[in-house]
Structure formats: C-alpha cells, structure tokens
Amino acid sequence: MAESYHAIVRHGAYRQRPGAPSARQPFALSDEGLRQASDCGDALAGMLAEHGLSLDPVVHASRQLRAWQTASGIAERLRAHGHRVDEIRETSALAERGLGSVANLTVAEIEAVLAEDPRFGAPPLGWKSDSDYRLPLEGAESLSEAGARVAGHLQAAAEAARGGALTVHVGHGASFRHACAHLGILRRDEVAGLSMFHARALLLCYRGHGRWSHVAGTWKIRAPKDEPVD
Predict the structure, then answer these.
(1) How far is CA 142 from the centre of its chain?
(2) Between the CA of residue 219 and those of 54, 149, 195, 215, what are the distances in Å?
(3) DSSP tag of 186
C-alpha cells in the first residue's frame, strides 16, 4: 500500500462561553481565529510543496461552526495557491467529546446537575481532564471514547486515500490527541501533557497495516495545571 498523508488541524480561536467545557459550543471564530485559518492554509500549501504531495480535493471537518469556518479559510488559501478543493465534508465523526444532556453548561452547572440527581454521586476531582471518565448522562462520552471515534474516521480515510496525497481533517484538540493514542502515534501517558495550537497542522503518515507516524508539525506542551480544551 502506498503511503498517504493526513493533516489534523484544531480549529482556530473562537468565542467560547467562559467556564464551559468547550466540546460542542455553536459559536463562531473570532477575528484572530479567522486569521489563523488563513495562515494555516498558507502553511499547508508550503507543506504540500516541501513533501512533494498532492492534495485530496475533499477537506473534512466536524459539524461545529468553528471547524467549518477553519476548513473554509484553509480551502480559500489552498485554492489561492493553485490547489483544487471541491468540497468541505462535514462529519459528526470529527466532533469533540460529547457531554450529552449537559452540553454547553459550565463545569459548575454540570456539577450542580449531578448533585441534585439522587441517582448519581459527585464526579471525581479533575473529571474534565480524566481520559476515561464519562458523565453518567445520556449521550455523554469519555475523552478516550471520542478519540476512538476520531481514530476510526482517520483510519477509514487512510484506507481509502490515494498514495502520495494529503487529506486535511479539521476538528478538535482533545479528540485528536486521544485519537493519536488509539492509532499508536502517541503513548497514552503522553496525551495529558500535550495540546494542539489553534489552526496549526500536524502531518501524519499512514503506511498501511495500522502503521502511523508523526511527520511534521509541533504539539503544544501543556502547563501542568492547564485544563484540556478542544
């Protein structure tokens, strides 16, 4: 099987609700985020030239507005560099961790919901960053479960990709990091110490038979007390 390449891109900066786990908030990119998306398109054009790759004409994005806007800004700049982009294909497979029925509430509000429900105990300290903790609410996922979903998307895209082509995937930092652990790109014990820069691509290579590697781009090192954000 010929090698294929996959750029994973965390969306640009956006107008996030303070205090809320930033999983599936519906808000738009900030002006800074729009600039970051354009800059990412220019950087991806340079990455294509540096590595001698062609561009897959479908850019994949989660259904969150900030991811779609980031993908749109990337596509606009790639077209300006002479690359063909036919479609931004939205998929729920690239979404950040789902919090189910408490989506878009603040951490304090979520903990109050659990405290008022006689069926549930208090969540563990640091639950928001616990890879394996799932809120006991309908529709909720753990970070690891979200990562497995994103890993499935990346694996399917890799199996279908043309050799020597670069496919762009725009989504969310925490689910991408956990996906990389599922794919063997990161060790599980590395995930908590890393994040992703807004709208800066990480280039991955798939060599077939489940073999993935990190080729280019830089992970962001998280300060010890930083909470994981998407």
Answers:
(1) 15
(2) 24, 21, 6, 12
(3) S
